[in-house]
Amino acid sequence: MKALHRRRETLPAMLLLAPFLAAFLLFFLVPALQTFWLSLTDSSLTRTSAFVGLANYVTLVQDPSFWAALGNTFYFSLLTVIPLTLLGLVMALLVDRFSRAGPWLQGAFFLPFVLPISVMTLIADWMLQPSAGVVNHVLGMQRAWFADVHWAMPMVAIGTIWWTVGFNMLMFLAGLRNIPRELYEAAALDGARGWALFRHITWPQLKPVAWTALVLQLIASLKIFGQTYIMTTGGPYNTTRVTLHYMYETAFTQSDAGYAAAIATAFVIVVVLLSLLQGAIARRLGGAK
Amino acid sequence: MNRRTLLALLALAPILPSHAAEVQLVRMWTLLSGGDGARMRALVDEFNASQQAVRVESTTLKWGEPFYTKLITGSVVGAGPDLATIHLSRLPNLAGGGVLRPIAAAELAAVGLAGGDFLPRQWTKSQYQGRTYAVPLDQHPLVLYYNKNLVGKAGLLDERGQLKPIEGMAALTDALRRVKAATGKPGLTMESAQSSYAIWRLWLSLLAQQGLPIVANGRFAYGAAGEATLARIAGWFQAGYATPGMDYPASTSQFMGGNAGFMLNGVWEVPELVRGSKAGTLGFEYGIVPLPKLYGDASAWADSHGFALPANGDKPMSAAKAHAVLSFVAYVSRHSMGWAEGGHIPAYRPVAESAAALALEPNAQYAAAAHNVVYDPDGWYMGAAGPLEAIASKFLPAPLAGQLTPADALRRFETEAARLLKKRAPLY
């Protein structure tokens, strides 16, 4: 009887899962496996010539350009992951705190997130123009920010934070609104307020959200490509060229799809390892559930 | 007509001879934009109006790497156009990789063209392993533009108002210094921001003037002289004779605005000067000379546009289509006087050597450049928007802005490019 009941649930479940499963197989798993296969070959943009085993990976570990690009990717992540998460939390707390202005704030904070990357990069580019940009106007400078080896990456990071912080705010806001009001009422009766409320109720309840936000943000930041590709074209002299940009150039400018696939595969491994590491740290600190 | 006859006619339509079936449609992809694009569009329109048998439809795509990526992938899967404009500097990459289809001498003869009709240097550059892969259209060398008003104040003009000959690196540097001293404006403008190509082209020209190869036996071979040459150029910027960090539009508008004595650029900026001069908006008199002899000779970087036929995978072109395509190419060759007004030097000799072309101003001022042109050296990674130029455009501008020493910039350039030199040419 129970088995029959289970079977009755299996079919609808399979049917409901099927579209996602098909898309996952067709557009993710199969291409991912093909990419791995490609990384073991000597291939141009369009033609697979010969199986070369791990030769591309041997080249990769000795390739200073790859390590430099990976370093730039980490630098960008360092500049964005924690600021984006913290700022998202602060914005969510502000929206939650001010009941009247809250929705307006929420709209203002979230608005940049809806911009396409081309619009966002154009705005950033205009604001940072050496002679006509508003930033230089306010600072009384003529700095070419995106051509400056020290400022290019931080400026890309600031643009990205402005652009995407709205999403993190929404996540924290959802978390905040899930905290039972009774907890605050009970604590208030015991005389707790302000910082004590945040430290003993809000933060412990928000921790899982915070860790999720951090993991998602880490993956998003490591995947950076469009912003630097458009705003700095990887310059000056490759100091803002990130891993995916190097992969793109290898595949399309240099017609070396085999090596580009090796870069992609190695990068996936790095991202997965970092995500696992972060998960392990989260469990150590008792944040993740 | 009743319904039955109509149906019968419709059923027969595919086998009935019709006027539409006789017109050969030629699809062309070009990377020509701006003034070049407008001039090519005009040639296409004139050709379409001149006859009924062939109709050319031209599509303009984004210059540079996107164009070549699309051409390569399109041709490989058989979805490429019937005709494409390319840079001859990319021929070893495109012909060697199997992207293009060779053009037989008989096919050219059928539309009245022969190898001897084209200037020898361009014709040679259209060959790959003994076969013709392109019909050359033009040549566009690096030249030296000058502002007569500013340069005159520095005492650099002769009594006829022409630039006094400049010979040697020291003489050019001195000329730039004198313009700066006499007018307070930069002596030179050239594209120098990150991702600029101009410095690669100038550096390549000056290496050729010293007889130095860039690459020999699969290694970079320019050595200390290459570094010293880059340092001399960077020196102009460090001394304030030129403004560093200018992108292409900023550098050309600095010159067009009358704010620099000289401009180093390709001849493709000629139409803008002609237009401004005619409209009276330019505000100064200009002159153009070939890149001076700064070292051993007067070699100057140049590239050429040419027409090529994509191989289109397993969908080879019919003989009738090939004839139609080449008849358009022949038409453009014969009418390339209009193309010359874009500043380019035509490759088709009957036009290039005609009295009209030789008298065309301002082209006549720099016509001598044609005798000393050097292309990017042969190699699959060479050429316009090719892999090596792309890498050079990242590192070579840095010393001009004082961000890297010339030695450091070249070291980084070589590190990044080393993998390219070792790799064998890709097959597509």
From TrEMBL, chain A:
<feature type="transmembrane region" description="Helical">
    <location>
        <begin position="149"/>
        <end position="174"/>
    </location>
</feature>
<feature type="transmembrane region" description="Helical">
    <location>
        <begin position="74"/>
        <end position="95"/>
    </location>
</feature>
<keyword id="KW-0813">Transport</keyword>
<keyword id="KW-0812">Transmembrane</keyword>
<dbReference type="InterPro" id="IPR035906">
    <property type="entry name" value="MetI-like_sf"/>
</dbReference>
<keyword id="KW-0472">Membrane</keyword>
<feature type="transmembrane region" description="Helical">
    <location>
        <begin position="257"/>
        <end position="277"/>
    </location>
</feature>
<dbReference type="Pfam" id="PF00528">
    <property type="entry name" value="BPD_transp_1"/>
</dbReference>
<feature type="transmembrane region" description="Helical">
    <location>
        <begin position="107"/>
        <end position="129"/>
    </location>
</feature>
<keyword id="KW-1003">Cell membrane</keyword>
<dbReference type="InterPro" id="IPR000515">
    <property type="entry name" value="MetI-like"/>
</dbReference>
<keyword id="KW-1133">Transmembrane helix</keyword>
<dbReference type="InterPro" id="IPR051393">
    <property type="entry name" value="ABC_transporter_permease"/>
</dbReference>
<comment type="similarity">
    <text>Belongs to the binding-protein-dependent transport system permease family.</text>
</comment>
<protein>
    <submittedName>
        <fullName>Sugar ABC transporter permease</fullName>
    </submittedName>
</protein>
<feature type="domain" description="ABC transmembrane type-1">
    <location>
        <begin position="70"/>
        <end position="278"/>
    </location>
</feature>
<feature type="transmembrane region" description="Helical">
    <location>
        <begin position="209"/>
        <end position="230"/>
    </location>
</feature>
Automatic annotation (TrEMBL), chain B:
<feature type="signal peptide">
    <location>
        <begin position="1"/>
        <end position="20"/>
    </location>
</feature>
<keyword id="KW-0813">Transport</keyword>
<dbReference type="InterPro" id="IPR006059">
    <property type="entry name" value="SBP"/>
</dbReference>
<keyword id="KW-0732">Signal</keyword>
<comment type="similarity">
    <text>Belongs to the bacterial solute-binding protein 1 family.</text>
</comment>
<dbReference type="Pfam" id="PF01547">
    <property type="entry name" value="SBP_bac_1"/>
</dbReference>
<protein>
    <submittedName>
        <fullName>Extracellular solute-binding protein</fullName>
    </submittedName>
</protein>
